[in-house]
Amino acid sequence: MLSPHTVDSAVAARDRFATGSVETVSGPRIVIMCFDRLDRDLAAAHAAIQRGDHRALRTWLAATALMGGIFISGQVYEFKEFLNAGYGFTHSPAWSAFFGLTGFHGVHVTLGIIMLLSCILLSLSGRIRQDNAESVEIVGLYWHFVDVVWIIIFTVVYLIK
Amino acid sequence: MSADATTVPAPAGDTHADEHHGATDGLFVKTAIILAIITAIEVAWSYLPWSDWGDGTAMVLIEVGGLIIMMGVKFVIVASVFMHLRFDSKVLTRVFYAGLALAIAVYVGTLATFEFFTGGHSWN
Questions:
Q1: Among A42, A155, A161, which would you mutate to test the B interface (most chain B Cβ atoms within 10 Å of its Cβ)?
Q2: Domain of A14, in residue numbers
Q3: What is the pLDDT of residues A17-46, one digit of tens each?
Q4: What is the CATH number of the domain that holds A112?
Q5: ipTM value for the complex
Q6: 3-class SS at A160?
Q7: Distance (Å, whole) CA A45 – CA B22
Q8: Residues A48, A57 contacting (CB under 8 angstroms)
Q9: Closest by Cα among A106, A105, A100 to A72
Q10: B113, exposed or middle or buried, with CB in 10 Å at 0-12, 13-18, 19+?
Q11: What predicted TM-score, i.e. pTM, was given to this entire model?
Q12: What domain count does chain A have?
């Protein structure tokens, strides 16, 4: 998943951060951004339970959790790379902003993954039914709100020079 | 009370019981593809050699403005389709975007106090 090119991009991003600019395009984050875009299948999960299709519900939930997990894996990789290179939370205000923004987002995505996995377990135990599909919808609203926050973070932190 | 509430017919215009507010899986897939395309354009846009095409604020405005516009389009699409504001009551849309406007105003105000826009700050 992480080619030499993406590693080079991360290093370039790190170097640009080191100069004090918040401009960066990080290869790994672009990769996980693509996976983040695929997490939209949660809306399909809600549609599935409204149809009473539990298998589809669990499939979509699992797919969404998987994509979220790949996203978080990329974030952990990126953080590790930056920290190994000596760029931590206290390096500069730009790095504090970077770790603060992306770190909090990562925590929220992780919580969302836990919610998704909980929904799968609840579905398996028969506690998510067609008549209480709102529980999946609420998780979906949370998940997609975290998603729209990422849309802003991605542009402001990674793309704008 | 709650048991009774489940037997009360939904009010007119309440389409909550419809399949995801009338949205279909096909709509979700098409929307995700559109978002992926916009994201690809965003990334490509950020790699364009803007500084080679001219100096000054005009190029910066085009580059940053383009990215901000694409970001806004993606935001609205996700909020409208995946958060299904498009299929809900308009009051929810107003509440959502009013909160967003307030957040942006607070953020811009805070940055202004730190002289972010006038170069009075230092990242180093």
A1: A155
A2: 4-159
A3: 444 433 344 444 555 555 454 555 666 777
A4: 1.20.120.80
A5: 0.75
A6: coil
A7: 14
A8: yes
A9: A106
A10: exposed
A11: 0.75
A12: 1
